[in-house]
Design goal:
single chain, mainly alpha, 4 helices
Length: 82
């Protein structure tokens, strides 16, 4: 009889489908498959993607207006938030 995968296997399969830089971020945040629920892992990925989209938006809007300074400030604010 076929059995569905257990929750750890589902979380591991989820991680296997992500790019390496996202996997590293998730593990650094403590959302490894043996420690976190699938919903927590998904929220971390959504948070990371939202931050990247916001960063890309600001970089696109402020091109030529000290982009390196804007990016450095954005990364500093991210570090404070973590």
């Amino acid at each position: 009889m076929i059995q569905p995968p257990n929750t750890y296997t589902v979380r591991k399969i989820f991680l296997d489908g992500l790019p390496a830089h996202i996997i590293l971020h998730i593990i650094e945040c403590g959302a490894a498959p043996n420690l976190a629920t699938l919903s927590k892992m998904m929220k971390e990925v959504e948070h990371l993607e939202d931050n990247k989209a916001l960063e890309n938006f600001y970089l696109k809007c402020c091109r030529g207006l000290g982009v390196s300074q804007l990016k450095a400030g954005f990364q500093a604010s991210q570090a404070e938030a973590d």
